[in-house]
Amino acid sequence: MVAGCCTNEATLNVSVHRLWKAAACEDHIHMPKIIPEYFASAELVGDGEAGSTKIFHFTPASAPVTYVKDLVEVLDHGSHTMKYKSVEGGHLGRTLKSQTFEVKLEAAGADSCLVKTKIEYDTIGDAPLPAEEVQKMTDLPVKMMKAVEAYLIANPGVCA
What we know:
Layout: E1 3-12, H1 16-25, H2 27-34, E2 39-45, E3 53-58, E4 67-76, E5 81-89, E6 96-109, E7 112-123, H3 131-154
Antiparallel strand pairs: 1-7, 2-3, 3-4, 4-5, 5-6, 6-7
């Protein structure tokens, strides 16, 4: 097993309030609408707060991954910090033994925010993940947040 960590930051042109609501609190509702080419559907088990489970089902474009079940470990509305732990599906059992995602949103202005992502993982084998896999993992949350940003800009009444 090899432990790894990757981080990324991006500034988005949408308020922290709107991005938090769309991408943290209601991601199970919005992601299939925003990125239908990858998200087939999503389910929420619980009230959405810490202890809840979110299950995202993917389209064939995400093969070999078909779904991921994430446990919401932290959903801090004050600091705009969310932390999910993958508990089933995704790359678990394929290349990863464990994986957690942490996203923190910080206001950068009235209509902009800084998105900081951190992904921690343990590989199944004794080799580190290939650099291209780490890069994909690093870029994915930012690409998803940019898609949410574009959707919110195009739909100013959503999560207002």
